[in-house]
Design a protein that fits this description.
The protein is an alpha/beta fold. The protein has one domain: Rossmann fold (3-Layer(aba) Sandwich), CATH 3.40.50.720. Helix content is 39%, strand content 13%. It has a three-stranded parallel sheet, with helices on both faces.
Length: 125
């Protein structure tokens, strides 16, 4: 990576919440946050910024193809997630992508070592 570059790591809000059945997944996402903190220091001489985007619930085609959920199950899951999210809905892939693009851009040139929760406020309550 060239000097002045930006690394954006894909985390998850689960890294700071105790969600039953997600222990290993949550631990790996918390480890990514730790990597970002360490790399922020390791790469400071090269002006490489390292940040984490931690999405909340974002329903993607993988819920059906990889998790094997039916449309009815997905809608129930979305409703449950929306009920516990301050914005009252799940996120979209486009919303997460916009946060990543921002952190990778020069508009974020003085942002380094942060974990940006793009989760409708769910991690804040």
């Amino acid at each position: 990576m060239t000097a002045g570059g930006a690394i954006v790591i894909n985390g998850s809000m689960v890294s700071i919440q105790g969600v039953p059945g997600f222990g290993v997944y949550a631990a790996t996402k918390a480890a990514l946050r730790s990597f970002a903190r360490t790399w922020t220091q390791d790469l400071k001489g090269r002006n490489i910024r390292v940040n984490v985007v931690s999405p909340g619930t974002v329903v993607t085609p993988g819920y059906k193809s990889e998790l094997g959920m039916t449309d009815e199950q997905i809608e129930g899951f979305k409703a449950e997630a929306a009920a516990s999210t301050p914005l009252g809905r799940t996120g979209t892939p486009d919303e997460i992508a916009k946060a990543v693009v921002f952190l990778a851009s020069d508009d974020a040139s003085y942002i380094n070592g942060v974990e940006l929760f793009v989760d409708g406020g769910a991690a804040q309550i």
